[in-house]
Amino acid sequence: MSRFVIYLALVGGLSLSTFYPSEQQRSRLESLIPVSLGFLLGLLVAETPLSSFLQEQLGLTSRNPDKVGLDILHSAGTADSKNAKSELNQRVMYGLQHAFLNLEVTGWWFNMGLWDKSKPMRFQDACKALVEKVTSHLNINHESHILDVGFGCGDQDVYMAQLYQPAQITGITIEAIQHHAAQELIKRTSIPGTEIQLHVADASKLPEFLASTPEVFSRAQDHQDGRFTHVVSIDSAYHYNTRAQFLKNASLVLVPETGRLALADMILAKPAPTSGLGRAIFKAVFSAMEVPATNMKTMDEYKQDLMDAGFVDIEIECIEDRVFSGLAQYIQNQTGRLGGLVKPGVNWTYWGLCKGLWWLDRSKWLHFVVVKARNGPRRS
Ligand SMILES: C[S@@+](CC[C@H](N)C(=O)[O-])C[C@H]1O[C@@H](n2cnc3c(N)ncnc32)[C@H](O)[C@@H]1O
């Protein structure tokens, strides 16, 4: 605080002397004032209690680095908050502002996770658990060629490569920025035995993507006649326009008879409203989530879509009890710990997501499903 008062007094003094200088002072001050004012204002913005407010107003940062440090300290459960706050106000030198230098992003995972409520879990571990749940018992081996549809930022491809060492993983995502992040990850992570190729493409246009990207099947060891052994899509298929069309295309690009489909997906647990305001709200809610309302089908309709697409031996497991509330709790905890790191608008988005997930958990309105199915015989 004392530094703040000194800076303020200096800025005030210099400003006043600009308006009421003596004759001799005028010439010396004229060159000194703009430089000094700029310097002191810079200090005010960077160094004083006004800083977080001013920085936020100027869009320079959303948070005072010291406060971020405090949040991180609390997240580790090592500080009693009242004492730590007053200790922070006594900071004379570095305080906790170097928290920024110690932050590390360990991945870009973004599925809803499979949560074990009996223990605290890191986000990435819940995401990995969901990937394992979807991809286990699919006979993925060193000869497999997986098509991963909606790969996010590529973490799941690296993880599948580590788990199963398939010969090849071809991934597609509709988002160029996620493709970019994934390419960076793949560059940094070498996975012996697995070639990972990632592309920007729309899941609802699989045949067009394959026709325009012949290198997908150009490997010498690709004996599958231009088809994949596995099509995987984790927490993504409900977005495709339409999912029913995607399922048909997935069957076409899979090896007949032995090709396997594996999904983590969302469907309705209760029938959708069919008319009036209810239907309008239903459509608006899903369109806000970029989910075509036509994809929101009941279990029977969903099974029918899989069969119509040509799949057999269909297994569907409902796991929503281990998904929605686990993620909601995690977002709540993470917001409490590090919510100040993100801009208020982003915080509101997570607040809404969290409330929505709690509501989904209570209302039992949606099923979160893991689907495994085998491709049927070749169709003409
Ligand atoms: C909830 S995220 C899951 C991402 C990833 N599976 C993971 O676990 O991190 C849904 C993903 O589906 C992708 N997606 C949505 N619509 C798509 C489409 N039509 N074609 C390809 N990818 C799509 C999004 O870009 C996003 O990465």
From TrEMBL:
Keywords: Methyltransferase, Transferase
Catalysis: reaction(s): N,N-dimethylethanolamine phosphate + S-adenosyl-L-methionine = phosphocholine + S-adenosyl-L-homocysteine + H(+); N-methylethanolamine phosphate + S-adenosyl-L-methionine = N,N-dimethylethanolamine phosphate + S-adenosyl-L-homocysteine + H(+); phosphoethanolamine + S-adenosyl-L-methionine = N-methylethanolamine phosphate + S-adenosyl-L-homocysteine + H(+)
GO BP annotations listed: methylation
Associated pathway: Lipid metabolism; Phospholipid metabolism; phosphatidylcholine biosynthesis
GO molecular function annotation: phosphoethanolamine N-methyltransferase activity
EC number(s) recorded for this UniProt protein: 2.1.1.103
Residue ranges of every copy of the Methyltransferase domain listed in the record: 146-256
PANTHER family for the chain: PHOSPHOETHANOLAMINE METHYLTRANSFERASE, PHOSPHOETHANOLAMINE METHYLTRANSFERASE ISOFORM X1
Name of the protein this chain belongs to: phosphoethanolamine N-methyltransferase
Organism: Entomortierella chlamydospora
Lineage summary: Eukaryota, Fungi, Fungi incertae sedis, Mucoromycota, Mortierellomycotina
